[in-house]
Structures are given as C-alpha cells and as structure tokens.
Amino acid sequence: MLKKLFSHTAIYGLAPQVVKLANLFVLPIITPFLTEEDYGINAIILAVTGALSVFSTLGLNIVLANSFVKSVNQFKWLWRQIYGFLICWNIVFSILITGVIYLFIPKEALENKWEIILLNVAPLVLFSSSSMLGTLYYQLSQKPMQIAIRNIIIGIVAVGLNVYFIKYKGMGYMGWFWTGTISGILMQLSYWYHLNYKLGIKPIFNFKRSTIMKQIKTCLPTIPHYYSGYLLSAFDKVIMRFYALPTADIGRYSAAQTPSRLFESGTLAANQAIGPLLLQSYKNDDRQAERKLNFTVIILTLSMTSIICLFMKELLPLLIKSEGMQDIYKMAIILVMGYNYRPMYVAANNRLFYVEKTKALLKVSTIASIISVVLNLITLYFWGVEAAVFTFLLSLMYMGYSGFFIKEFKESKGTNHYPLFWLSLTLLLTICVYFGVDLNLYIKAFLAIFLFILGLASLFINIKKHS
Questions:
Q1: Which range marks the domain in which residue 169 is found?
Q2: Is residue 241 part of a domain?
Q3: Exposed, middle or buried, 210 (CB in 10 Å: 0-12/13-18/19+)?
Q4: What pTM was estimated for this model as a whole?
Q5: 171 and 79 share a domain?
Q6: What is the DSSP annotation of 139-184?
C-alpha cells in the first residue's frame, strides 16, 4: 500500500510538476512583460468567477466516487445520468458566470469586457464536465498515467501559449485568459472522447429527475464545505476590490501566491494518490495503514515546505522579475506554510466523506470560512494586503485540524492522528522559517540539512512503527 502511495503520488505529482517546472523557466521570460496591474486584473477575475465555481458540479462528484467504490459493476448507469444533467446545468451556470464578470470587472479591463466573458464561458459549454468525470474515473481506477499524460501535454502547450501571447504578442493579462480557455477546451476534449467512445460513459439527457434530485440533496451540504475553499483562498481579493485597494497591491499579493500554488499542486497530487488507498483502509478497518499513509504525507509536506521557505528570499527574485515585486518573499512564506494544513484535513474529512456524514463538514468549513471573511474584513481595512496572508494561515490551520474534534468524527471512531502535535509543529516551523529567511546563507544551508535529516528519520520511524 505504501508503495502505491509513493508511486501514484510521484505520477500525480510529476505531471503538474513537469508543467510547473516549465512555468518556472518561463516566468523570468514573461514577467518583464507583466505589470502589477496585470497580476491584479487576473487575480480579481479569477476570484469573482471562483465565487461560483463550486456550483459547477453541485457537489455531485462525491456521489460519483461513492457509487464507483460501492457499486463497481453498476456505477456507469448513475454516472451517465449525472453526466447528462451536468451538461444541461452548465448552460445555466455559464449565464451566472457572465453576470458576475460583468459586475466585478476592474476599470482597467473594461475595454476587453466581452472578450473576457467569452473566454471564461467557452470551456463550460464545450464538452462540459468531461474533464471532471474522466479525471475521477481514472483516479478511482488507480490509473494515474491517464491523468498524468494529459496534464503534461496540455500543461506544456499552455506554457508555450503563455510565452506566445504575453511576450511575443504583448497581450498582458489577456494572454492568461486566452491560454486558460484554449488549454481548458483541449483538456475537456481529451476526456470527452475516452468517456464517450472508450469507456461507454455517454450522457443520458433523459435522466430521471427523482434520481438526480436525490443525489443533489445528499450533496448539497458539501457545497458550503467546498465553497469554504474559495472563501479561504480567493475571496480576500473580492474584499480588497470592495475596499477599493489599488489593483497593483492586489497584483503584488497575487504574485506572492505563485510559490504557494506550486506546493498546492503537490499536496493535491498526494491527495489524489492517497484517496483510493484511504478508502481501502477504511473498508478493511486498517487503522495502522491509515495512520501510516497520512503521517507519511505530512512529514514530507512539512519537510519540503520548510526547506524551500528558508531560501524564499533568494529564490523568488529569480522567478518574478516584474517591477515592484522585490519585497513579497515574506508574504510568500506564510502562504506556502499554510498549505501544510492539507494532510491532516484529508485525514479527518475523508473518513467523514466515507461514512457520508457530509453535514458534519459544515462545522469545519463554515467556521473556517467565517474566520477568514471576518478577519479579512477587519484587517484588510486597517493594514492592507499584507494582513491577508496571516488570516489565510490561521483559517487554514482551523480548517485542517478542527475536524478531529467534532462529534461526528468521534462517533465514527476515527483514528487518532495526534492533531495538536502536528498543529504545534506546523506553527513552530512557520515561525522559524519566517524569521530565519533573513539569516546568513551558510546558516540557512546548515538548517536545511538538519531539517532534511530530521524528515528522513521521521519517515523511517513512521514506517517502522506502523508496519
């Protein structure tokens, strides 16, 4: 099982990391042609469209996953009905997206308003939901190469398009929108063919309304849970826009998120790999395997993020060469370390998903979202964009660890993962790297070696103890 975790994480992680690596190489090429305003416009549009993105599937991916695990030989009938429903739903959803962009588009981008709307709506209408269903199918089938190959090919195409549109065509922020649209349609198309003609999962448009409504009622409680992800990671930009903070300042904050997006993709890759393995451990009631899997992921995540953050001051200027971005490295550190919440979040909440205690997730996600929104409303008004990074960290820590303490987790006899220990360690390491980033380079090298050895020793102890 652990071998599968490492191999599947490597495959899931390799694909986006190959693309991220390519993006790292082109960042110094394209960032001289981008301004703070370009970053800000892109961030605001992504934030306001993200406000509705959670409604694109209505949470039905949970039903799809459960039906695959529990009805291996009969799941396609339900999948085809949900597929047909989602295609129809996304037409309505695209109208909602149009309205949101129209209302919130920054004044600096008004001249391209309708083009931006069209570029955001096109991937929703063309080959709708194919990418989501295809990715989920191959993830649950434990065939990560199908996902990885697509991510690598289309990701590299996207990198090339960014260079072409931004550097050679001088399109600025519009280059990002054109790249996102083209790559999104290509990804949908690649899964559409396999779903419809290789796997036989063709949409049923004459779906049973009673069946769809039953599944939606089950999944609706998960929408606020997933919406919390948006409120935690993107709604702060909407508040910045509401307070009329300069688009350039929003752009600086968005640029500081660049390293954290790299680590976010890594943690998501681990989640994709660990998900089916955790489901199997729940099914077999194998507590040792469950704890070993989750501890392995958090040890790796903490070690990698801490070491990289120690050198953020030296690394970030190599990637982002836009004017006005020289002092964002400390914001980047807090944002990166925040993503260490994810392994323990998965450890607590995957079990609640498995026992279908979806309403219990509201206790975790709703409160985390309220914390984020309230703190951002207060701190952004008084201290500006820098305050958002600390709100982000605190909210994610609550999101990651509170699930262990709710009644439903205890009633489900969830495995003890020592959450207070991991929370304390995460915060301690965050403080150390935040202040340690300004130390002498040789001292930081010594600290990095120490963290690396400590991480390896912890992995060895974890594997030996839970074997």
A1: 60-219
A2: yes
A3: exposed
A4: 0.71
A5: yes
A6: HHTT-HHHHHHHHHHHHHHHHHHHIIIIIIS--THHHHHHHHHHHH
CA atoms within 13 A on the CB side of 49: 22
**Residue 300 near residue 455 (C-beta atoms within 8 A):** yes
302: pLDDT strictly greater than 70: yes
Interatomic CA distance for residues 1 and 296, integer angstroms: 12
Contacting residues for 224 by C-beta, under 8 A, at least 6 apart: 362, 365, 366, 369
Query: How large is the C-alpha radius of gyration of the chain?
Result: 22
Of 16-25, 256-265, 380-389, the poorest mean pLDDT is in 16-25
CA–CA distances in Å: residue 59 to residues 139, 244, 266, 403: 17, 33, 23, 19
Q: What total number of domains does the chain contain?
A: 2
In whole angstroms, how far apart are CA 44 and each of 182, 248, 390?
20, 11, 20
What is the average per-residue pLDDT within 61-67? 79
21 Cβ partners below 8 Å, 6+ apart? Answer: none
Neighbours of 114 (CB within 10 A): 12
Count of Cβ atoms closer than 10 Å to residue 450 Cβ: 11
Q: What is the pLDDT of residue 276?
A: 73
> Quick one: 207 and 90 in the same domain?
yes
Give the N- to C-terminal CA distance of the chain in Å, as an integer: 11
DSSP 199: S
Statement: residue 3 has pLDDT above 60: no
Q: What dihedral angle (degrees, nearest 10) is formed by the CA atoms of 285, 287, 290, 293?
A: -140
Distance CA 184, CA 187 (A): 5
User: Please, which pLDDT band fits residue 6 given cuts at 50, 70 and 90?
Assistant: very low
Angle value at C-alpha 426, between 425 and 432, nearest 5 degrees: 85
Instruction: Evaluate if residue 4 carries a pLDDT over 60.
Output: no
Alpha-carbon gap, residue 202 to 193, rounded angstroms: 10
State the Cα angle at 338 between 444 and 29, rounded to 5°.
70
pLDDT tens readout for residues 156-203: 898 899 999 999 999 998 998 999 899 889 988 988 888 888 888 888
What is the DSSP secondary structure assignment for residue 205, as one 8-state letter? S
413 and 450 both lie in a single domain: yes
CA-closest candidate to residue 227, choices 57, 112, 442, 406: 57
Q: How confident is the model at residue 14 (pLDDT cuts 50, 70, 90)?
A: low
Residues 161 and 279 placed together within one structural domain of the fold: no
14 within a domain of the structure (yes/no): no
**Tens digit of each residue's pLDDT (9 = 90 or more) over 368-402:** 888 999 999 999 999 999 999 999 999 999 988 98
CA 76 – CA 83 distance, rounded (Å): 10
